Amino acid sequence: MSAKLSKALEYANYRVTLNNQHEALKAKVQSLLSYSINGGTFTIDRELITFCKALISDKVKQAVLLDIYNNPIRVDLKDFYLNTPMKRYEYMRLKITDIPDEIVEEYNLQEKKTDDGYIYCEIRKGMYGLPQAGLLAQELLEERLAKHGYYQSATTPGFWKHKW
């Protein structure tokens, strides 16, 4: 076989291998960007992320989205802030008379109250009324999306970009 033909075959083999690797990588990225919830499957893309961010910012409690098969899927956003882990715990003081009696009995709070009738609580996860709940949810959203290669624009809050 001539050297020219050998080089041409070697290059063709290289291109086929490169193309196969490219297709395999593309398939892996697509599988990582597919997310299933409530019986539907969604492809995570810029439009979906921006749309969900807008829903959360506008305090929309529920939305119906079409999945990749055009099936309507109800997504519940009202509890997005709840149970977001906090890096730094917060503390709160509650008057025991403001706590329902069944809760006081179940957790034996009468023994834990102070002389002036207060219960002190340690808050470990996000909850309604916490001033930093929105920031905690935003950080959690950023962390989850970063795993899939997304990052928020430095100049346009709520606009997400993807690293390729």
What's the short version?
With 164 residues, the chain is α+β, with helices and mostly antiparallel strands.
What does this structure look like?
- With 164 residues, the protein is of the alpha+beta class.
- It folds into three domains: 1-32; 33-81 and 132-150, no CATH class; 85-125, no CATH class.
- The chain is built from four helices and eight strands; from the N terminus they run H-E-E-H-E-E-E-H-E-H-E-E.
- The chain has helices at 3-32, 46-57, 101-106, 133-146; strands spanning 34-37, 40-43, 62-66, 72-76, 85-95, 118-125, 150-152, 160-162.
- The strands form four sheets. The chain has a two-stranded antiparallel ribbon with strand order 1-2.
- A hairpin with a 7-residue loop joins strand 7 (150-152) and strand 8.
List the topology elements.
Elements: H1 3-32, E1 34-37, E2 40-43, H2 46-57, E3 62-66, E4 72-76, E5 85-95, H3 101-106, E6 118-125, H4 133-146, E7 150-152, E8 160-162
